[in-house]
Amino acid sequence: MDRRRSPGVEPRPLQRLAEDNVETFFAEGYLTGLPVFDAQGVRKNLEGLAALQHSLGGRPLLEATYCQERCQPYQFEIASHPVVLDYVEDILGPNFFLWCSHVVSKEPHEKRPFTWHQDVAVAPIAVHQGHALHADLPVSVTVWIALDDADAGNGGLQVIPRSHRQGIIPHIDVVTHYAEDAAPGIPLELIDEKRAITLSLKAGEACMFHDRLFHGSGPNRSARRRAAMVLHYSRTEAQVDAKIWPNMKVRCVRGTDRFHFQPTWQDFERGPIDVFASDGADVPGVTT
Ligand SMILES: O=C(O)CCC(=O)C(=O)O
Question: Quick check: CB of 215 below 6 Å from ligand 1?
């Protein structure tokens, strides 16, 4: 008998980042092509996505699922997948929480792009006063998991390599060629499109990036849907600005939270959860 295994307990597959992957993350601001789900996992994710969309009235899931991991086991299951957490641990260290997950599903021919932005500039989350971080380290990392195959044809994620070294850029309301609505973004004159690359990912693969990396995505010009699960994790020294996001609760998904700067949740709640509004307004895209 293999004495390292308890009877009935499957060993957890570890897919740690190699040292040179970690170096690449800090040099380029991102890593891509990370395997997470096998074919069976991909199928299960798509079934979960269809059920989630059905439960939300069948509407396109561009905004409706922000932070709904507190009430949607499907979202939480993906966000707490051990392989994902292993990757995150290799960048953030042993203690971190999940503060937001959401599905970005670009339906065929969806015109709306995601404006170029830095997650650190659009999310009011920072290291608590009294704690300091080395300037190269992110407060948060984002993991973007392809639920469908994603590429330049269907509005795959775009990044500007090494842009995370440009500091935090004040964001403005940006109107794009494709959408009339303005969304917070990096002023277009600061975007060097020639340096942008599109990350092509197969369903079940992920990319992860630094919270200062410039990223966004164009319209879906194809007949193929492009759905992704976007996950945001922060080291436990971080705190959300409660004046801006008063209902934000996080879940420590790896290690321990010694600080408790942020309210946490344990059991699934009845949803949808309204995390952003301070004035009782609805979660964008979600009706209560
Ligand atoms: O999935 C996309 O197209 C972009 C998502 C994104 O940038 C974000 O959620 O911060």
Answer: yes
Ligand 1 closest atom vs CA 102: 9
Range of the domain at 211: 19-253
**Within a domain: residue 287?**
no
147-165 residue pLDDT tens: 999 999 999 999 999 999 9
% of residues, the chain, pLDDT over 90: 77
For the chain, what is the domain count? 1
Domain assignment present for residue 129? The answer is yes
Minimal-distance CA residue to ligand 1 atom 10: 119
* End-to-end alpha carbon distance in the chain: 54
Which tokens in the block code for residue 141?
């990392």
| Ligand 1 pocket check for 157: Cβ under 6 Å | yes
Distance between CA 74 and CA 231 in Å, rounded?
A: 13
Could you tell me if residue 188 is inside a domain? Answer: yes
* pLDDT tens digits, one per residue of 153-202: 999 999 999 999 999 999 999 987 777 778 899 999 999 999 999 999 99
CATH of the domain at 44: 2.60.120.620
Rounded to an integer, what distance in angstroms lies between the CA atom of residue 217 and that of residue 230? 13
Q: Closest residue (by CA) to atom 1 of ligand 1?
A: 104
CA distances from 88 to 44, 221, 231 (A): 22, 32, 10
Average pLDDT of the residues in 25-40:
97
